[in-house]
Amino acid sequence: MSFIAEPVLTGSGGGGFMLLSRPGSAPRLLDGFARMPAGSFNAVADADFLAIPVDFGDTVQTFHIGRASVATPGLMSMLFSAQQRYGRIPMREVLAPAVHAARHGITLNALQASFIHLLKPILSSTEGCRELHSAEGRLLRAGEPFSNPDLGNLLELLCLEGIDEMYQGDVARGIAGACQPGGLLGMQDLAGARLVEREPLSLPALNGTLLSNPPPSSGGALMSFSLQLFEMLRGSRPESIPTLLTECLSEAARARSSDFDEQVHLTGFADAFLHAGRVCRHAEDLSRKLDETENNRSAEPANRHGSTTHISVLDKDGMAVSMTTSNGEGSGIVVPGTGIHLNNMLGEEDINPLGFHRMKAGETLSSMMAPSILVRKGRASLILGSGGSNRLRGAILQVLLRHAVLGEPIEQAVHAPRLHPEGDVLDAEPGALETADEASLIRLGWRVRQWSDTSIYFGGVHAISIAANGSVEAAGDPRRGGAVAWA
User: CA–CA separation, 27 vs 181, rounded Å?
Assistant: First the structure.
C-alpha cells in the first residue's frame, strides 16, 4: 500500500529492511536492500547517469538518475519471502487493498503532493515518469487522485505466478530491458536477488536488548554507538540531556572514520566497532573535549530529504515487525506495463560513500536505515524506526531516550521537538533547547540554528509501545504524515 500512498518515498523497484521479533524465537533481520549489479560502469558505452539538482528551499542537492543509477531491487523479493516464511494470511488477501488502491487511486493530501513537486526535475525527466505523476500536462496536486493500475495488475500477477516472475520471468526481462542501453542491471543480477537473512545487531541497553539493523548497513551501528556513549557518560557528566545527546551523536560521526565505510562489509565489523574498550576510549575523549570546550567536529553528507518510509507492526500474539523501505528519489525509469519506478540507489552519494559504482557485484549497499525493536523479558517493548537519511538514527535515539529513560508516553516522545547535529551546526526544532542548553552548546562551539517549526527534515518516527501489563500505545509522526491503525 505504501507504493501507492507514498510513491515518491518507496516503491516496488526499491529496497528495504524488515526486523522481526517473535516471542520464543530468535529475532531476524531480512535484508531486501538494493545491491550492486554486475555490470561495469566503465565498460558501458554512453552510460545513462545524469546529475539532477533538486531545490529543497534552504539548499540545493544533486542526485544522479538514469539507467546507470539503478541498483538491483530487492524489496519485492523480501516482502514475498517474509510472507511465505512468517505470514499467516494468504498473499492475495494481504495485497487486495493495495491492488484496489492502485487501480482506483488515492486522493493526495498536501504532504504527499509536496513530495511529488519537490522532485519535479526527476519525475518529469522521462515520459513514463511524467505520465505516472501528472494530469492535464502538469504534476499532480493535493486533492487529486494518484493511481497506478499497471502496478495493481503486477501485484495480482505475482500472487498467481509467484515472485520468481519478477526476478526470472517476463517481468524480469522487462526490468532488465528498461535498463538498457546505458545501464548496469542485467538478468543475472535479478536472478541472484534472493533475500538475505541476518542476525540483528543486538545491544544490551535501556534495561533490555535493543535490536537494530546490522552491517553492512551503518545506521544501526552508529545509533548503538551513540546510545552506548550516552549510557556511559550520563551519570558522570554535568551536562543536560540535550547537550550530552548532541555530543554523543557528534562523537559517533567522528567514530565513522575514513576506514568505516571500507570495513563495514567485513565479518565481525559490528563487534569491533561497538567493542566496550573502543566506546570507552571515545567516552574519555569526549569527556576531555567537553571539559576543554574544543571544537573538532566531523561532517556527514547532507541528504536534506531522505526518501524513506517506515512501518511498525504488532500482532495479537506478540510478533513485532519494524520495516524501513526506500526507492531513493527514483531513477526516472518506469518499466513499461508494470508500474515499477526503478530506484536510483547507485546515484545517491550518502549510500555510496566510497564513490559511485565502486562496490563489488552483488554486495548490499550500505544504508542508514535502522528499523529497531527494544526487547524486554523476551518480548517486544518498543517497535520503531524512521525515515530521514543521516538524521534518522538521531530521531530514533531521541524517541528511545524520551520513552525508555524519561518515561514519556510514546505519543509525547514521538511528537517532542528534536535536534540534529551535523558538522558544527546544531539544528533545533522549537522547544528542543532551553536557554541554558543553547548557551552551553554555543560555549562548546556549536552554531545553533533554531527552526521556526517542526519539519520533515528531522525524520519521521512511527512507533508502538507495549507495557509490561500488555497494554499497547502507538504514534505516527506528523512530520511525515504518520498514522495509527488498529485491527
Answer: 42
Q: How far apart are CA 209 and CA 286, in angstroms?
A: 25
Angle between helices 392-400 and 219-233 (to 10 degrees): 40
State pLDDT tens for residues 119-158. Answer: 999 999 999 999 999 999 999 999 999 999 999 999 999 9
Q: How far is CA 260 from the centre of its chain?
A: 19
- Hey, where are the domains in the chain? 2-13+26-193+326-351, 201-302+370-480
**Joined grid coordinates for residue 88:** 499467516
Quick one: fold of 201-302+370-480?
A: Glutamine Phosphoribosylpyrophosphate, subunit 1, domain 1 (3.60.20)
Q: Is 246 a catalytic residue?
A: no
| Nearest-angstrom CA–CA distance, 337 and 154 | 8
Q: Look-up: residue for cell 497506478?
A: 148
219: number of Cβ within 10 Å = 26
Catalytic option among 10, 246, 308, 364: 308
Report how far Cα 443 is from the mean position of its chain's Cα atoms: 33
Q: In terms of Cα–Cα distance, which of 24, 48, 93 is closest to 319?
A: 24
Closest among 307, 359, 303 to 189, alpha carbons compared: 359
pLDDT digits (tens, 9 = 90+) for 183-220: 999 999 999 988 899 999 999 999 999 999 999 999 99
Residues 54, 348: Cα–Cα separation, whole Å: 13
Query: In Å, how far are 211, 271, 348 from 277, measured between CA atoms?
Result: 21, 11, 34
CA distance 388 to 453: 17
DSSP characters for 113-125? HHHHHHTHHHHTS
Q: Cell match 533545533: residue?
A: 428
CA–CA separation, 400 and 205 (whole Å): 11
- Specify whether the CB–CB gap between 133 and 140 falls below 8 A: yes
